[in-house]
Amino acid sequence: MNERRQMGALEAEVLELLQSAAPEALTPGHVLERLDGVLAYSTVVTVLTRMHDKGLLGRVKQGRAFAYSPVADRHGLTARRMRQALDADPDRHAVLARFVDDLSLGDEEILRGLLGGALPMRPPGAD
Questions:
Q1: pLDDT, mean over the chain
Q2: d(CA 16, CA 81)
Q3: What's the angle, vertex CA 57, arms to CA 51 and CA 61, rounded to 5?
Q4: Which in 15, 80, 88, 93 has the greatest CB count within 10 A?
Q5: Helices (H), the chain
Q6: Same domain, 91 and 65
Q7: Contact status, residue 70 vs residue 57, Cβ threshold 8 Å
Q8: Which of 53, 70, 87 is the last residue before a domain boundary?
Q9: Are residues 39 and 88 in the same domain?
Q10: In whole angstroms, how far apart are CA 28 and each of 19, 63, 83?
Q11: What is the pLDDT of residues 35-76, one digit of tens each?
Q12: d(Cα 26, Cα 68) in Å, to the nearest integer?
């Protein structure tokens, strides 16, 4: 369990690194350099490959290696996870109804605005 948590933390660190490098795709060697070389090259390749297989990263051939980049920004990846959770349950109506029931009034207003086609104003400092 501890190793799994560490891998999740490493994936998060690699994802943050790749998002900060955008739009530049990075090879495993570049990722290793930016992580201060504290990992084995094969570990970096394994993490990048797993993240690609999970649909978090895209990759293009660059010389003899692949160069990786995130498929979406942080908000896009969160939306993707929400959509995957929704897709995993056959009763979409029940899931969406419970989701809306649990929203704060502020979030409900944002959602109503988005569904109505008008983006609500963001409060100062919101991101």
A1: 86
A2: 17
A3: 110
A4: 15
A5: 2-21, 28-34, 41-53, 74-87, 92-101, 105-115
A6: no
A7: yes
A8: 70
A9: no
A10: 15, 12, 29
A11: 987 899 999 999 999 999 999 999 999 999 999 999 988 888
A12: 5
